[in-house]
Amino acid sequence: MFAFLLADYWFAFTFFQLEFHTLNSSRSAYQSITFKPDFFNVYTIFGAQVKFSVLVKAVSAILRTPIQSIDHLRVQLPDPDASKVQWTLECNNGMRKACSITCNIEPDIQHLTLDRNGFPSNFIVRPHDLNRLLANFQSSLQEITIIATEITSSPADAASEIGGKAVELRNINPTKDNDSSLHTQLWIDPAEEFVLYNHVGDPVDITFGVKELKAFVSFCESCEVDIHLYFEKAGEPILMAPKIGLSDSSGSNFDATLVLATMLISQLRDENASEEPQ
Question: Please, are residues 58 and 46 in contact by the beta-carbon 8 Å criterion?
Fold first, then answer.
């Protein structure tokens, strides 16, 4: 899942958890995954904390082996100052694949902390449902816009929401007058497509990368969990996380976070400006 970011892979070991972090070169996408010790068959650490960094491409090369043929993976750092990390794949057919990956000499380990409860808007969607919605757009699509409006119970107000559908997905950018690409708008009823939907107040929109979104959808689908998306408005980051359990991930042995930058310009603001009388 980290391969699409094509950057460094940061590991942080403590007695309580193992953290993976990565940040793309343009600093527009940040990903982290946390594992509790009981996620692993064996988890051993020397010292209070150990950190190292390797290239994502190097790790991805090792993990190209089909997961169905792997019995287990062993990752070992001989000592805190070691220059290489040993990776060993034990395959079901008895084959062993071993590789040593060189650690970065001066790792720039980043850590981003955002309070999920601090986002005013959020929704939960099942991965296969989101994939079905995204299938309505071109496969070459690079960015997508989500427009969220408040759900109303008044029939008169519902008419302004395209038949009560409070969420819109689109790939239309009104700032590009000569854009000849295929334009798609998809209006969604949250009650039909989402597990949960929370948005109160004026409409907001966020535009962000589709490639990163699809990668996280695939990750959640493989983990058999729903996706929780948190956002505020254009220009503010969107946070995605797997929805584990009934409340939060505190009872789970793993958690993940993907944070994406969004476009600064609001399409809603541009549309409203174009509709004003001259």
Answer: no
